[in-house]
Amino acid sequence: MKKAFITGVTGQDGSYLAELLLNKGYAVYGMVRRSSVENYERVHHIRDKIVFTQGDLTDQSSLDEAIKEIMPDEVYNLAAQSFVPTSWNQPVLTSDVTGLGVTRILEAIRKYKPDAKFYQASSSEMFGKVQQIPQTEKTSFYPRSPYGVAKVYGHWITVNYRESYNIFACSGILFNHESPRRGLEFVTRKVTNAVAKIKLGLVKELRMGNMDAKRDWGFAGDYVQAMWLMLQQDQPDDYVIASGEIHSVRELVELAFDFVGLKAKDYVITDQKLFRPAEVDQLIGSPEKARKILGWDSKVSFSQLIQMMVEEDLRLLGS
Ligand code: NAP
Ligand code: F7E
After folding, report:
1. What pLDDT digit, counting tens, does each position of 248-259 carry?
2. pLDDT of 44
3. Is 224 in the pocket of ligand 2 (CB under 6 A)?
C-alpha cells in the first residue's frame, strides 16, 4: 500500500486530496498544527481514515520526525499562509511558512526519504503583474504581494532540489480553485455565503473591494487530480493548472445574485478598505501542457462552480 503525507490536510485542497488518495487505496497521513480548538471540519467525514501527525512548517524537527516515521512514497506540501491580504499584515510569518517552509520539508526528504516524490503547491500569484497572456510554465514571474514573493521562493527551491539532489520534485502552478469548502475570506466564498445570507434575510449588504480584478477560476476537486497525476509521471516537471477562462469579480457577484433571483446592484457596496496595496489585475492560465502530458482538464465550468457554492451555502445556512 502506497503512503502519502499531506501538509495542510485540514485546508480546502488537503481535504479533497485526502479523499482522492483514500479512494485510490493509499494510506494517508496528514500534518496538523496544534491549536486550542480542534480544526477538522473539512475532513470530519474521513477523520478515522487519516493518520494525523502534529507538526508545523516553521518547525524543522517536527518535519524530520514525520518523514522519518512515515517514510512516505509521496509528499504533498499544501500547507501555507494562503490568504493574500494577510501577507501584508504578516509578511515575515508568510515568508517563513509559505517560503522557507518548503525548504524545511525538502530538507527532511533529502535527509530521510530522498526517493519520496514531492509536490509543491505553487500559485498563479507568482505571475502577478502578468508578463504574457495567457500565462504558461515559461512566463516570467512578477509577484505583487509578500505571499506571491514567498511562493516564487518555494517554486525555485523545489526546482533547485530536483536539480541539485535528483529529488522527484514537481511544482504545480495552480490558478484560483474554489469549492463549498473554500475559506470564507476568499472572494468566491465570501460572495456565495453573503448571497445565501441575503436571500435568507440574515444580512442586508455585501461589501466588496476591487470588482474589476479578473481571475481564472476552477473547482478544487478537479485540481487535486492534477497534483496526483504529476507524481505519477516518469519524469518530475512543473505544470500550469488552470481552466483557460477569465472572469471578473463583478461577473462572479452578478452571477451569484442571479442564481437566487436577486440583483447585485441592490446589495453591493464598494469599500476602499478592501482594496489591496498592490493588485493582481488579471490572470489566465494555459493548461495546454497539463492537457497534453497529464491528460488533465478542468471539468466544472465557472457557472457550475458558482451555482454549486451558492446552493451549498443556502443548504448550510438553511439548516
Ligand atoms: P487553505 O485552505 O488556506 O489551507 C492551508 C492549510 O495550511 C491549512 O491546513 C492550514 O492549517 C495549514 N497551515 C497554515 N500554516 C501552517 C503552518 N505554519 N504549519 C503547518 N500547516 C499550516 O489553502 P488551500 O486553498 O487548500 O491551498 C492549498 C495550497 O495551495 C496552499 O499552499 C496555497 O497557498 C496553494 N494555492 C492555493 C490556490 C487556491 O486557489 N486555493 C491556488 C494556488 C496555490 P490550519 O487548518 O491549522 O489553519
Ligand atoms: O481574491 C478581489 C481581490 O482573495 C481574488 C488564494 O487562494 O488564489 C487566491 O488568491 C480577487 C482579488 O484570491 C474582494 O482584490 C474584490 O483581485 O479570492 P481572493 P487571490 O488573492 O487571487 C491564488 C491563486 C492563491 O494562491 C491564494 O492562496 O478578488 N476582491 N473584493 C476581493 N477579494 C477578497 N478576498 N475579498 C473581497 O471583498
Report:
1. 999 999 999 999
2. 97
3. no
- φ, ψ of residue 20 in degrees (nearest 5): -60, -45
Which ligand is nearest to the Cα of residue 98, counting in written order?
1
112 C-alpha to ligand 2 centroid (Å): 37
Q: Whose CA is nearest to atom 10 of ligand 1?
A: 8
Residue 319 pLDDT greater than 90, yes or no: no
Instruction: Answer whether 88's CB lies under 8 Å from 277's CB.
Output: yes
Probe target for ligand 2 pocket from 127, 144, 152, 176, with the most ligand atoms within 8 Å of CB: 176
Spatial distance between the Cα atoms of 118 and 137, rounded to a whole number of angstroms: 18
Specify the pTM. 0.98
Q: Domains in the chain, ordered, with CATH?
A: 3-177+217-241 (3.40.50.720), 183-216+246-283+300-318 (3.90.25.10)
- C-alpha dihedral sign at 231, 235, 240, 242: negative
